[in-house]
Amino acid sequence: MRILLVHHADPFRGLGGSERCVEWLARALRAEHEVALLYPEEDSTRPSLDVRKERRNGMDVFSIASAGRGFETYRDSAVTTATARIVDEWRPDVVHVHHLAGLSTGLVTHARARGAAVVITFHDFWPVCPLGQLVDLDLHVCPGPEPARRCLGCVGGQVAVPDAVSSRAPRLPLLGAAAGALARIAGAGGSRVAARRDEMRAMANAADVRIAPSRFVATRLEALGLAPIEVVPNGHEPLEVGAPEPDAMGRVRFGFLGAAIPSKGVHVLAEAFRRLDSGRAALRIHGPFPPYHGDVAYESRVRALLGPHAEAAIRGPFAPDRLSDVLAGIDVVAAPSIWEENAPLVIEEAFLARRPVIVSDHGGLAERVRHGIDGLRVPPNDPTALAAAMEAMLDPACRERLGRTPPHVPSPGEHARAVLEVYERARARRRDGGGRVGVVVLDHRRPEEAARAAVSAFQADVAPRVLVVRNGPGPEAPLPAGIERMDLPSNLGYAGGMNRGVARLAREGCDRVLLLNNDATLDPGSLRRLAEALDDPGVAAAGPLVLRPDGRVESRGIRFDPRSGRLRLIGHGQRPSATTGVVAAASLSGAAWMVRTRVFEALGGLDEDYFFGFEETDWCARARAAGWRLAVVLDATARHEGGRSLSRASPQRPYYAARNHLRAAQRIGPLPVPARWIRGAAIVILNLLHALRQTDLPRGDAARWVVRGVRDYGRGRFGAWTEAR
Fold this sequence. Notes:
Oligomer: single chain
CATH architecture of the largest domain: Alpha-Beta Complex
Mean pLDDT: 90
Largest sheet: 10 strands, mixed
Number of domains: 4
CATH topology of the largest domain: Spore Coat Polysaccharide Biosynthesis Protein SpsA, Chain A
Number of strands: 26
Shape: elongated
Number of helices: 25
Low-confidence stretches: none
Structural class: alpha/beta
Radius of gyration: 30 Å
């Protein structure tokens, strides 16, 4: 098996716990598999996006020079292109992502498009939190992302103004403060945070398997919208550590190991030690004090708390190969984290060294440490409780009892075997993913175009059931082998024809169905990407990027404002970009969209009273009201001719447009009188203006048909227009 491991730092040189986990996993896998690593590197001597390949420890190691900074680097198309070349060159069977900071979500999309299975490990909360730890800058645990309010308290200074401005904030503190105030007061930048949340969630849910080292983090992330996550505990290399070396002064040494940042609660430990007021205790802080979201003064504050004990306590960073020596000089390991840790390696190291621990009683720490057996758990951010636990640990009998029977710590080999089982499941899901796909192509008197649309969706890697629904009598055209036809006795409109087709395919076992107009075609590979978007259990429907005949964007989703009645095609007229991934949408284009059949039928299908136009807008609004999400898959594309199902020169087009516009507005966003009248007047004026601007039929005739549509709406006449009206 060819396995590409992806992380945000060099696993062979990084000092963090996740880097070491990736290194051990890589070495264990290398014994029987081909392994490569990919990580971003900040190196000012290299050109931006420069890719370097070297051979280390029997593995190919790819590094990509950091492309720069900015809030949206998580979806940098240039980084996606650079990493795509690595995937294309190395051709992995599995891409195992451990962190994407400095890279791009497009890596996941591209890897899956090239047939690789994707596995993601969550070492913290990076998919849902821009800061990664779900703890705010005031060190309060965050209940979850809230882009319009809560998140702006942490990243408002980055997102309230353009990146070119926010990048200067570290050098211009007043500018940063002003940007943060703008975010908090006016909510500026909330949409940028929401876009990150939606794309990260879509990226995570697109993976074939998601894993986490602790049940706590898996459950927490699932509650925040991620698809089910399996638990695979981290491994750790064996440690040769004996009993603690005696302290020359007979003191009990409490040790902190790792990055000394505020969310780790080192200041709480320092305060607790100060309150301990015992000559029988010593404190040892082993690790660097790196900047923390711009804060470079944390070490000074900790030193001030420790006073005369600071020099002896703060020991600085140490190389991983000195871990056994460090643990030899520690009697009790302390992990007083304020953030809800996942599965910190320091606890596994304490278990391997048979050292009792004192930990914060929340998150993965509480899950891993058995209170009164492996150590003591105390309320987080509570120096008084922590000092009391430290006081208890001064008793030799207490330390001996708590450190006697630590839990089993998996070896890297055990961890690798468990991960390999995950890889096999991921590959099986990749092969079988996308569910049982059906396609309904709606035809009304244009059989050649319907056949062309059906052929475009008959994509062999998905093997869909393709059904052409002939909406009423009309000419026939031969269909290629494998494509079926369903004849309806009369024209039931878009909604009626699609409803009949979806119902038939659902009875035949299709759990997701593409609804495709006869004047639209699907680009190669797009059917699978749409089907895989519905692997996210929270998504009811997904649409492609819809392009006009001139190659520009027709829509990448639709926004309908029921307050004003305005309907806007997102991205209309823009040039398509290289952006990949899945983004949230309020509504989808009826030219091409895929629905989850269970949800489609549970919501009653499309409303057939519309007959032509606004049916999909109505259905999407009902789906969202029921708690479902809608998505646009940016690297799935459809090409829409438009004006073929009902000719642009047909007077019925302005009739249906006006009538159904009024109906959809009131159904989606009911308003009382007189607000309903005001909105209705605005919709009528909008449709009349369009009738007077168009050139496909006489303007006076178009305006009269708008009036007919308004009149029939007022009379409650819906469905197909007939001469009898």
